[in-house]
Amino acid sequence: MDGNGRWARQRGKPTKYGHRHGAEAALNVVELCIDRNIPYLTLFAFSSENWMRPITEVEGLMALFLSVLKRNEISQLHQKGVKFNFIGKRDGLAPKLLRSMDEVEKRTALNTGTTVTVAVDYGGRWDITEAASALGQQVEAGLIRPSDIDSELLRSQTSLGAFPDPDLCIRTGGEKRISNFLLWQFAYTEFYFADCYWPEFTEAEFQCALEEFANRQRRFGATHIEGGYCE
Predict the structure, then answer these.
(1) What is the mean pLDDT of residues 102-106?
(2) Which of 3, 114, 169, 194 yields a CA-CA distance of 20 to 30 A from 179?
(3) CB atoms closer than 10 angstroms to residue 129
(4) Can you tell me the distance from the alpha carbon of 51 to that of 164, in angstroms, rounded to the nearest whole number?
């Protein structure tokens, strides 16, 4: 969800104006996923590196995040079967924000529709480090042996361990990089770089991304041959 600030500055508006419109775009994308029966959506709301932004912008983002969690749209999404999940570090977030996140998670925990994962204070390197640390503690406690550790076991300890790896990553704002997001999970993910800022991301752009993804040939590291794949 990139480009909120640049979109606002192009219009002579403060950054918070762009973030507010970015929140609307995010809610719209959730609805689009529901309409298309897309089972999983992950939104990169706030990276660990975003703490380096001006304090006024960070405070505004946190206030916006809290206000979105309390909006009627969240209850409406709950009624549509959406299940919310939050990943990322928790120790730097305000208690009232954590309470709202926990409340939304608990309220939607039994829903079976689209699972919306929101990454807040998240970094891909942190995620892998935490997973490795958790496995190290299990080895130290005698619960597993070092030889038990493989890619699937490590994956199970990451923030998205309970969910399948993403099929498609859509990035707006003109940037063509991962930016420390889901480094483990993106091993075979397809990427779509939209030439628009996040507040401008419409249903038409979303559909274009889905159609391009559908036309790609995913080989997962193999070479395509007639009748199948070979390594």
Answers:
(1) 98
(2) 114
(3) 11
(4) 29
Sequence length of the chain is 231
Question: Which CATH architecture best describes the domain 4-216?
Answer: 3-Layer(aba) Sandwich (3.40)
| DSSP 8-state assignment for residue 154 | H
Q: CA 140 to CA 117: how far, in whole Å?
A: 31
Tokens describing residue 171? 């990035």
User: Exposed, middle or buried, 140 (CB in 10 Å: 0-12/13-18/19+)?
Assistant: exposed
Q: Which of 50, 111, 165, 180 is catalytic?
A: 50
By the 8 A CB rule, do 82 and 114 touch?
yes
The percent helix, strand, coil of the chain (3-state, each to 5) is 50, 15, 35
Helix axes 55-69, 15-35, angle to 10 degrees: 30
Strands 223-225 and 228-230: antiparallel
Listed by start position, the domains of the chain span 4-216
pLDDT of residue 230: 40
Which residue in the list 2, 4, 121, 127 is annotated as catalytic? 2
CB of 121 closer than 8 Å to CB of 89 = yes
Low-confidence winner among 67-71, 160-164, 214-218 (lowest mean pLDDT) = 214-218
Catalytic annotation on 2? yes
pLDDT digits (tens, 9 = 90+) for 117-171: 999 999 999 999 999 999 999 999 999 999 999 999 999 999 999 899 999 999 9
pTM over 0.85: yes
Distinct helix (H) and strand (E) counts, the chain: 8, 7
